[in-house]
Amino acid sequence: MTIASSSPPSRLPAGGASEPRSKPRTRRTEVGETRGDGRLAAVFIAPALLGFLVFLLWPTLRGIYLSFTRFNLLTPAKWVGLDNYVRMVNDPIFWDSMKVTVAYVVINIGVQTVSALAIAVLLQRLTQSAMLRGIVLTPYLMSNVVAGLVWLWILDTQLGIGNEIISALGADRIPFLADETWAIPTIALINVWRHVGYTALLLFAGLQAIPNDMYEAARVDGASEWRMFWRITMPLLRPVLAVVLIMTVIGSFQVFDTVAVTTAGGPANATNVLQYYIYGSAFGRFQFGYASAMSVALLVVLSAITVLQYRLTRAGRTDLG
């Protein structure tokens, strides 16, 4: 006769070994991992943060302070209050430089944005060849100084190959960089040539984020390429286009090196953009206080334009669901 065991049936698996229980994560472990991630993030951020503090924040604060002083490197800075700003408001050369800079920005931004958008759409709709994208980006790999010198030689009135071609076609030679009417448009187009490829690739990346299903549905409904561009491409590309416009406007207001190597502000101050005037005041006439005041004014103008652009273009919102 067998005696039944009073113990409950075993719940062990077939292999006879008990399953290991996972230890619950304690709050202390999670906090420790968070602190470790924070330290690692701080290590990676530190070089960029140090560069920001040393090369951007400190010079900006120093420049704001110097804008209220009279300083020429040879003597200690002397506090003069708002004298530099009063002088700036009454300086006709400052306002002329601002007008020249605005003219350059309008030409540069208008031509560059339209050209870059056309190139980006063609790259997306016709071909996505990596080699072609590399060719488009090639001028951007050249520095502004080199690009300026190359075009200075090409457009030289007497010996430049550009004017040689114009002369061979029977037209009069054009003093592109020596005439007050032609100088600023020429400098703007030189910078368009250099930067348009980079801007086009930024817009091309934005176009890649637009789903192809929308274009296919529009084709089924009989929409033309032109209609799809205005009804699909432009609305969905708006956030990327807004950021690109903000970047290019800020960069255009800071034009300096192309002017310095081609016209040096001439002829007759026709290309004396604001950055070049600030440079001449600081390092040509050693009026660092006045140059700092104009730099602060430019900073305020760019900040206002950036905020206005951001709000008008709704750069922080997208129409993609």
UniProtKB/TrEMBL annotation:
Which InterPro entries does the annotation name?
ABC_transporter_permease (IPR051393), MetI-like (IPR000515), MetI-like_sf (IPR035906)
Would I find Secreted among this entry's keywords?
no
Q: Which Pfam families match?
A: BPD_transp_1
Source domain of life is Bacteria
Species for this entry? Streptomyces venetus
UniProt cross-references to Gene3D superfamilies, sorted A to Z:
MetI-like
**Localization of this protein:** Cell membrane
Q: How is the protein disposed in the membrane?
A: Multi-pass membrane protein
The segments labelled Disordered in the record are 1-32
Residue ranges spanning the membrane: these are 40-61, 102-123, 135-154, 182-205, 236-256, 288-308
Q: Which keywords has UniProt assigned to this entry?
A: Cell membrane, Membrane, Transmembrane, Transmembrane helix, Transport
Protein name, entry field: Sugar ABC transporter permease
The UniProt record lists the ABC transmembrane type-1 domain at 98-309
- Annotated family: Belongs to the binding-protein-dependent transport system permease family.
Principal location class: membrane
